[in-house]
Amino acid sequence: MIKEFVEKWGKNKKILEEYFCKNEQGKYYEYEDIVKLLFEVIINKDETIEEEKYDTENMHIIDDGDYEGTQIFVLHKKKYITPKIEDYVYTNTYYGSCAGCDTLMQIRGLKEELPNKKQVRVYMSIALHLLQKCKYMK
Fold first, then answer.
1. Helix axis angle, 117-132 to 3-22, nearest 10°
2. What does residue 37 show for φ and ψ, rounded to 5 degrees?
3. Dihedrals φ, ψ of 82, to 5°?
4. Are 113 and 24 in contact, with CB atoms under 8 Å apart?
5. Got the DSSP string for 95-127?
6. Tell me, what DSSP letter sits at residue 2?
7. pLDDT higher for 98 or 127?
8. How far is the C-alpha of 5 from the C-alpha of 16, rounded, in Å?
9. Whole-number pLDDT of residue 100
Protein backbone atom coordinates (compact mmCIF):
# COMPACT_ATOMS: atom_id res chain seq x y z
CA MET A 1 0.00 0.00 0.00
CA ILE A 2 1.29 3.47 -0.87
CA LYS A 3 0.86 6.00 1.95
CA GLU A 4 0.43 9.02 -0.37
CA PHE A 5 -2.31 7.21 -2.30
CA VAL A 6 -4.20 6.45 0.92
CA GLU A 7 -4.00 10.12 1.91
CA LYS A 8 -5.33 11.14 -1.50
CA TRP A 9 -8.15 8.61 -1.12
CA GLY A 10 -9.22 10.26 2.13
CA LYS A 11 -9.15 13.66 0.50
CA ASN A 12 -10.83 12.83 -2.85
CA LYS A 13 -13.03 9.77 -2.35
CA LYS A 14 -16.22 11.88 -2.33
CA ILE A 15 -15.45 13.01 -5.88
CA LEU A 16 -15.19 9.40 -7.04
CA GLU A 17 -18.37 8.46 -5.18
CA GLU A 18 -20.18 11.35 -6.86
CA TYR A 19 -18.91 10.18 -10.25
CA PHE A 20 -20.32 6.70 -9.66
CA CYS A 21 -23.65 8.17 -8.54
CA LYS A 22 -24.04 10.43 -11.57
CA ASN A 23 -22.71 8.21 -14.38
CA GLU A 24 -24.24 5.11 -15.88
CA GLN A 25 -22.51 1.83 -15.08
CA GLY A 26 -21.56 1.33 -18.74
CA LYS A 27 -18.83 3.96 -18.24
CA TYR A 28 -17.01 1.75 -15.71
CA TYR A 29 -17.95 -1.66 -16.99
CA GLU A 30 -14.50 -3.27 -16.64
CA TYR A 31 -11.86 -3.27 -13.90
CA GLU A 32 -9.65 -1.29 -16.28
CA ASP A 33 -12.23 1.52 -16.25
CA ILE A 34 -12.23 1.64 -12.45
CA VAL A 35 -8.41 1.70 -12.32
CA LYS A 36 -8.40 4.64 -14.75
CA LEU A 37 -10.99 6.46 -12.65
CA LEU A 38 -9.04 5.73 -9.48
CA PHE A 39 -5.91 7.33 -10.92
CA GLU A 40 -7.64 10.21 -12.69
CA VAL A 41 -10.01 11.20 -9.88
CA ILE A 42 -8.02 10.22 -6.77
CA ILE A 43 -4.28 9.83 -7.46
CA ASN A 44 -3.74 12.49 -10.15
CA LYS A 45 -6.14 14.96 -8.54
CA ASP A 46 -4.42 18.10 -7.25
CA GLU A 47 -1.10 17.27 -8.95
CA THR A 48 0.04 20.55 -10.47
CA ILE A 49 3.08 19.15 -12.27
CA GLU A 50 2.05 17.14 -15.33
CA GLU A 51 5.09 14.84 -15.02
CA GLU A 52 3.89 13.75 -11.56
CA LYS A 53 0.57 12.49 -12.91
CA TYR A 54 0.12 8.86 -13.90
CA ASP A 55 -0.55 8.13 -17.57
CA THR A 56 -3.93 6.39 -17.64
CA GLU A 57 -4.13 6.39 -21.43
CA ASN A 58 -1.04 4.19 -21.77
CA MET A 59 -1.77 1.80 -18.93
CA HIS A 60 -0.40 -1.70 -19.48
CA ILE A 61 -2.66 -4.61 -18.65
CA ILE A 62 -1.36 -8.11 -18.12
CA ASP A 63 -4.13 -10.67 -18.35
CA ASP A 64 -3.12 -14.24 -19.04
CA GLY A 65 -6.47 -15.65 -17.94
CA ASP A 66 -9.36 -16.84 -20.00
CA TYR A 67 -12.63 -17.26 -18.14
CA GLU A 68 -10.98 -16.33 -14.87
CA GLY A 69 -7.63 -15.01 -13.81
CA THR A 70 -5.64 -12.09 -12.54
CA GLN A 71 -5.32 -8.72 -14.21
CA ILE A 72 -2.27 -6.63 -13.42
CA PHE A 73 -2.47 -2.93 -14.23
CA VAL A 74 0.84 -1.08 -14.68
CA LEU A 75 0.98 2.71 -14.91
CA HIS A 76 3.84 5.16 -15.07
CA LYS A 77 4.22 8.86 -14.50
CA LYS A 78 3.94 11.12 -17.56
CA LYS A 79 7.65 11.85 -17.75
CA TYR A 80 9.07 14.01 -20.54
CA ILE A 81 12.05 11.68 -20.65
CA THR A 82 11.58 7.92 -20.48
CA PRO A 83 10.17 6.89 -17.09
CA LYS A 84 12.49 5.15 -14.64
CA ILE A 85 11.48 2.03 -12.73
CA GLU A 86 10.50 4.08 -9.67
CA ASP A 87 7.99 5.99 -11.84
CA TYR A 88 5.93 2.82 -12.28
CA VAL A 89 3.16 1.57 -10.03
CA TYR A 90 0.99 -1.51 -10.31
CA THR A 91 -2.18 -2.94 -8.86
CA ASN A 92 -4.13 -6.10 -9.55
CA THR A 93 -7.43 -7.87 -9.25
CA TYR A 94 -8.76 -11.38 -9.63
CA TYR A 95 -11.75 -11.85 -11.91
CA GLY A 96 -14.16 -14.68 -12.53
CA SER A 97 -16.33 -15.77 -15.40
CA CYS A 98 -19.77 -15.28 -13.88
CA ALA A 99 -21.72 -13.11 -11.45
CA GLY A 100 -21.29 -15.81 -8.81
CA CYS A 101 -17.50 -15.56 -8.79
CA ASP A 102 -16.73 -12.00 -9.94
CA THR A 103 -17.60 -8.98 -7.80
CA LEU A 104 -17.83 -6.49 -10.67
CA MET A 105 -20.06 -8.75 -12.76
CA GLN A 106 -22.26 -9.41 -9.75
CA ILE A 107 -22.78 -5.75 -8.87
CA ARG A 108 -23.47 -4.42 -12.35
CA GLY A 109 -25.47 -7.33 -13.74
CA LEU A 110 -26.49 -6.63 -17.30
CA LYS A 111 -27.55 -3.06 -16.59
CA GLU A 112 -25.86 0.09 -17.77
CA GLU A 113 -28.15 2.44 -15.85
CA LEU A 114 -27.28 4.63 -12.89
CA PRO A 115 -26.25 2.54 -9.88
CA ASN A 116 -28.25 2.42 -6.67
CA LYS A 117 -26.67 3.28 -3.30
CA LYS A 118 -25.62 -0.31 -2.59
CA GLN A 119 -23.94 -0.59 -5.99
CA VAL A 120 -22.09 2.68 -5.42
CA ARG A 121 -20.77 1.32 -2.11
CA VAL A 122 -19.49 -1.80 -3.85
CA TYR A 123 -17.87 0.22 -6.67
CA MET A 124 -16.16 2.34 -4.01
CA SER A 125 -15.01 -0.83 -2.25
CA ILE A 126 -13.55 -2.21 -5.48
CA ALA A 127 -11.71 1.08 -6.07
CA LEU A 128 -10.39 1.11 -2.51
CA HIS A 129 -9.12 -2.47 -2.80
CA LEU A 130 -7.36 -1.60 -6.05
CA LEU A 131 -5.76 1.40 -4.33
CA GLN A 132 -4.72 -0.71 -1.32
CA LYS A 133 -2.97 -3.18 -3.65
CA CYS A 134 -0.93 -0.44 -5.36
CA LYS A 135 2.82 -0.89 -5.13
CA TYR A 136 5.80 0.88 -6.62
CA MET A 137 8.11 -1.10 -8.84
CA LYS A 138 11.67 -1.27 -7.61
1. 160
2. -60, -45
3. -45, 130
4. yes
5. E-SSTTT-HHHHHHTT--S---HHHHHHHHHHH
6. -
7. 127
8. 14
9. 78
